[in-house]
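Troubleshooting: if your tokenizer reports a length mismatch, compare your output against this known-good record of 217 residues.
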Amino acid sequence: MRKDYKLLIFDWDGTLIDSQHGIVSCMKSAMRDVGLPVLNDDEIQNIIGLGLYEAITTLYPNVTEDHYTKLVDRYRHHFLSMEQSLPFEGVPAALNQLYAQGYVMAVATGKGRVGLERALQSIQFGHVFKATRCADETQSKPHPQMLYEILDELQVSAESALMVGDTEYDLAMAQSAEVDCVAVSYGVHDIERLHQYSPVQTLNHFSELLPWLSTDY
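Known-good structure output:
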């Protein structure tokens, strides 16, 4: 029989929201603004899911503090100026169905708090999340601290929680926290990268999550 998961924790960008193209565009604009070499799309997509500090220092290992500060400022300027990215097809309906079924849900994201709050205000399903954690208020993925804090806040055991994400950072975080994970194949990282973390299920479409959770084996 499948585990009786009580808490579902979701990554944001690339799992719920189709935002990778916007993130890449904003990062490239910021790179041009501060005079850093403009990296290619694949290099930038690879860091989606990390906190901004970890993302930038991964892209530019020898970046100076001045360049880092300016790049963060310009990235935030471009990101907060663009139109909000839309949810992937099926996400709003599926989340509302999960909410109606009584699942407790949370978000663990590499976004900053300002960006997440802005995004939550623009969608129709923000009410379903009982807890959220952002990379600028705790440890960035793949460190498990985000999950530890969510589990503690909601008083749910790791055995009763499930992490859903599209990057190896999400799944490595879950593995470290001893939380089961589900990989989505439509996000940023290739599914082969995710399978090394032994997800309990792979989703090709977000709407597949509820039927899978509802099926006993």
